[in-house]
Design goal:
The protein has 731 residues and is mainly alpha-helical. It contains 29 helices and 9 strands. Helix 3 packs across helix 6 and helix 17 packs across helix 18.
Length: 731
């Protein structure tokens, strides 16, 4: 009468009683007896009402017994084959039959539970304990292709259903659980180290990588459309044949304990307490799966690896690593707008099928959900990899749709992850590489910015707000994070924007000058520390100095930062001074902060133009006969009047700074762990933390930054776990 079944039940030898059919069928699945693939046992199992609510310890016991016997029974391989067949039936039928739907769901639920246990508890490097093959003595079905593995068969069927069968009232649950199954199947990555190697084994995700390009395109398109359309779970469960009381067939229920790790969402998660759909798990899971697929990299064996021999235990040097092409990444990068096919217009021929998407809908959906870190990563993947989508974004007149949520993320940097901040800054840097973007953001006026608390911002241009937020991010970083990589990105974006600044607001102009002042004070402090260090007797040290290991290197870094800020001011004054009187006012108001650097050998040439401007406007101010004190309004009025007569005489022309973002050659060391961290933290998917080797569990990802600067000509920041930025001055 206890909660744990007796041995005969697990073995399936006892006679089945109708009331315990599900109990006996599951017992037979995990037991010692092997049922041939063609046995009618499988039909009974998949067509039975598996309404089982087992506690965690019973699920664990069943999983352990299944793992013990699977090497002889090969039942995991067999139920995966039946899952593939059920899905094939669903795809081939004109309408998904109710009976086929139930069999597919039952096969999916059962295989998901046990596959997840196998992966989490895998002991071998190549997952041999899965035994994804049929016994040699068992007759192979005629439907089996000669060279097709079971993992290729099942993943082909899963992808075919997802790509070819539309999401409807009747198929929603199967679509969703197939995405859950894919997460489980791809979770073998969690057991590998952070850097992909030629010995890594991921049987299911590798099987997805060898599918035909037409199917890959269908899947990428469907996943993105799910994200865009965000289909909700049907509220009226009676319309679902598998929930209908008329049809007694049921599905295996989710165990109500996290320890069981079924990863199957209960019905009430789809529907809120009010009966209204509160979220779209299908859209979220589609995004999870898409991000994992597009950022996967398969390291393949090269001649160098073969020459080393199997006895070598040294890790493969990065420069010798070779990766196979990722068809999902390629499909995303080649996706075109459904409304406009540039390739057809230009008369070019595109090899293979194209993913066609409604870019307008994708743009709007991203704007709505950029608070979700996964959406930020999707936007990065699109603008960095897909030139057609980047061009589409740049010609939109409502750029605030994307920029406002990203700027709000930077504003709330203290409550965001460092990787989320980096992704946003890289996206802004990519956008700022386009001159039309830099011009258009200053034409778009914002009536107010409700989330900006320091002061009221009324009728501020989007460009001015972007300058304010980027400078605020630099200041926050200087006081809290002290991250060179972040500084580099912010200043590079500001430098790209500078030649196109138009009517920068008073507040943004003040912030720009105060940024120079802040960096100047930091530079002076480092210079003083460095001088003191050089003049101290050998062997002497003072603990209170608390000097960095290499003060000189840090001094060089801030020298480059100051030069970039001076280049920014030079670009505004050289190319857009008549349209920016507030910048002139801010420089005049704080002109004393520039004076100490006027004769500095590293800065004097960049300060010549600033003092030329100061001399011009100071002389105009001195020429005015003024009764009483000067007011801000009066000074600004004189500046505006004299801006009209400004001809730029005596100004030295410098080469415009142009910074570009370049992803490093091996970004997978960052992206693969990052994507899985997002999946585990932002979704219902869970995994045994003791089994995770992909990243440190409960520890933040470490960053290692390096900074190289030479006369302001090249700034490079590596690290970010493989994401590297190279910023170059294009002469």
């Amino acid at each position: 009468m206890g909660g744990v079944p007796s041995t005969p039940r697990w073995g399936g030898a006892a006679e089945m009683r109708p009331a315990e059919t599900a109990e006996y069928l599951i017992g037979a699945l995990v037991g010692e007896k092997s049922y041939p693939l063609a046995s009618d046992y499988w039909q009974k199992l998949l067509e039975s009402p598996l309404h089982l609510r087992w506690p965690a310890h019973r699920v664990l016991q069943a999983s352990q017994l299944f793992a013990q016997n699977n090497c002889k029974t090969r039942h995991l391989a067999k139920i995966l084959v039946h899952l593939a067949w059920c899905l094939q039936e669903c795809v081939s039928a004109s309408g998904v039959p109710s009976a086929a739907l139930v069999r597919a769901l039952n096969a999916l639920y059962i295989s998901s539970v046990f596959l997840k246990y196998f992966i989490e508890n895998a002991k071998s490097d190549h997952f041999e304990e899965l035994h994804l093959s049929l016994d040699e003595n068992e007759a192979k079905p005629t439907s089996f292709s000669k060279d097709q593995t079971i993992e290729q068969l099942v993943m082909h069927s899963v992808l075919s259903f997802l790509g070819k069968v539309d999401v409807s009232t009747n198929t929603y649950l199967l679509h969703h659980e197939l995405l859950n199954f894919m997460l489980i199947a791809m979770s073998t990555q969690l057991l590998s180290g952070p850097s992909p190697g030629p010995d890594d084994s991921h049987p299911f995700i590798d099987a997805m990588m060898v599918q035909e390009s037409s199917l890959v395109s269908l899947v990428v398109s469907k996943l993105l459309l799910n994200y865009i359309r965000r289909p909700n779970f049907p509220i009226d469960s009676s319309s679902y044949s598998i929930f209908s009381e008329v049809n007694q067939t049921g599905v295996l229920q989710r165990v109500g304990s996290a320890a069981a790790n079924f990863v199957l969402l209960p019905f009430n998660l789809f529907v809120g307490s009010t009966g209204e759909a509160t979220r779209s798990p299908l859209a979220e899971n589609s995004l999870n799966v898409l991000l994992i697929l597009i950022h996967y990299r398969k390291c393949i064996e090269t001649d160098y690896v073969k020459d080393r021999g199997d006895h070598s235990s040294e890790p493969l040097p990065k420069e010798d690593a070779c990766f196979s092409e990722n068809p999902y990444c390629k499909a995303l990068e080649n996706a075109q707008d459904i409304e406009f096919d540039r390739l057809d217009v230009e008369g070019n021929v595109q090899n293979g099928p194209l993913v066609r998407l409604p870019f307008a809908s994708l743009f709007d959906t991203l704007g709505l959900y950029l608070a979700d870190e996964r959406s930020i990563l999707l936007l990065y993947s699109m603008v960095q990899g897909n030139s057609a989508f980047l061009e589409y974004v740049l010609v939109r007149t409502d750029l605030d749709t994307l920029l406002m949520p990203m700027l709000e993320t930077l504003y709330n940097a203290s409550r965001r992850t460092s990787n989320q901040i980096y992704m946003v800054l890289i996206i802004l840097l990519i956008l700022s590489q386009d001159s039309s973007f830099n011009a258009s953001i200053h034409k778009l006026m914002l009536p107010n910015v409700p989330w900006y608390q320091e002061r009221l911002l009324h009728q501020t241009s989007l460009g001015s707000l972007m300058v304010i937020i980027l400078i605020r991010t630099v200041k926050y970083n200087l006081s809290k994070l002290r991250d060179v990589y972040l500084h580099t990105n912010c200043l590079a974006t500001l430098a790209n924007m500078a030649p196109h600044v138009h009517r920068l607001s008073a507040y943004a102009s003040q912030r720009l000058v105060s940024l120079f002042d802040m960096l100047a004070r930091k530079y002076n402090k480092l210079a003083e520390m460095s001088n003191n260090k050089m003049h101290m007797p050998n062997g002497e040290s003072r603990e209170e100095d608390n000097l960095p290991e290499d003060t000189t290197a840090e001094l060089h870094i801030y020298t480059d930062f100051l030069r970039i800020v001076l280049e920014i001011l030079n670009a505004i004054l050289t190319y857009t001074l008549p349209r920016n009187p507030e910048v002139v006012y801010a420089i005049m108001h704080r002109q004393e902060v520039f004076q100490p650097f006027r004769n500095h050998p590293r800065f004097n040439e960049l300060l010549e133009n600033i003092f030329t401007v100061l001399d011009f406007f100071n002389s105009r101010m001195d020429a005015q006969k003024m009764d009483g004190e000067w007011s801000v309004e009066k000074v600004l009025q004189i500046i505006v009047i004299n801006c009209r007569s400004w001809r730029g005489e005596g100004m030295k022309m410098f080469t415009q700074l142009r910074f570009t973002y370049e992803q490093e050659s091996h970004p997978e060391d960052f992206f693969i762990p990052y994507v899985w961290q997002l999946v585990l933290s932002c979704s219902s998917f869970s995994f045994n933390p003791n089994s995770i080797n992909l990243f440190p569990v409960d520890l933040p990802l470490e960053k290692q930054d390096s900074f190289v600067g030479e006369d302001g000509q090249k700034l490079q920041s590596g690290g970010l776990n493989g994401l590297e930025q190279q910023v170059d001055v294009l002469v």
